[in-house]
Write a structure and sequence with these properties.
The chain is α+β, with helices and mostly antiparallel strands. It folds into three domains: about 60 residues, no CATH class; about 140 residues, Transposase Inhibitor Protein From Tn5, Chain A, domain 1 (Alpha-Beta Complex); about 100 residues, Transposase Inhibitor Protein From Tn5, Chain A, domain 1, CATH 3.90.350. It has a nine-stranded mixed sheet, with helices on both faces. The chain has a two-stranded antiparallel sheet with strand order 6-7. β4, α8 and β5 form a beta-alpha-beta unit. The mean pLDDT is about 90.
Length: about 350
Amino acid sequence: MDQSLGRELDGINLGDERLNRRSRSVLETLAVDPQLSIHAACQTWSETLAAYRFFDNPAVEPEKILEPHRAATLRRMQAQPVVLVVQDTTELDFTSHPPHDAGCLNKPHRFGLYDHTSLAVTPQGVCLGIVAEEQFDRYPDSLGKTDERVNWPIEDKESFRWLTGFRLASQLVEECPQTQIVSVADSEADIYDIFLDAQEQETPAKFLIRVKEQRSLPQKDPAGGPAAYRKVEDEVRAARVRTRQTLALPPTPKRAAREAHLEIRALQVTIKPPHARSRLPQVTCNIVLVEEVNGPQDGTDVHWLLITTLPIGTAKEIRQIVDYYKSRWQIEVYFRTLKTSCKVEEIQLET
């Protein structure tokens, strides 16, 4: 077994020493070629049967398998001055060969599950490891009922996973007292509960989230009518350019690689709560608007509206925020590795 992989398994505790040894044996076998199925990776039928029995054992829980790796990741985090805890969700599609107990994805005829991961990386993009993972699926009768869920408590919504991820990052602040922890997420994490949680906690992680919602200031907007409020994005766009930056964009299916020339504005604002939750307190955050200058105007121009509790006092701090958000891409690399290199969507299991 690869020595570094062996260290990731140090301290695994499945409640039985034989299971602990079996875990090393099974994971060693699967690690030789992650693209292979369990049956193809095992040399004999007895090895295959032992692997299936291992995974079918109720004492073998995903959290217990992940725990020694999480502990090793934590040690690596403690040696860093800054760690970005990037959270995101990907779908694992088993529609062509669904297990008999599979739930659905976003359509009744699409079967699989969602994987929500919190990945620790350095600002330079070095992956330190996984600190949390959560899987969930849906049922056909729950689809298409977004309006019904609007007024549900956050704990009953799928979006609760983003708040849970932020709280995990805040817990890591206590476990890594010499390390600055920054919770980074894309626009799905733009929920008011995170902003409020960060304001009310004693030792919260910093957060950096791409804005999705049309956030409002507490001040009325007479030009928009008696019930209109001034918008956060309009306010920051009216501010002066604080700094400029050139960003190398990697190729994607939607664009060729290019250099993007950016104008960056930043402002501290107070945000009013959503209309349906108007009794909640207001929050004060920093907003960073990143816009590409003279882009191709083909729908791929950089336009990031970021909300954060990181400081924006200097041009260097503002550029650092942009660099931190750019490092979010590492979780996309992780998901691509799972699907392309490990081929997790091609594994065919009965359950």
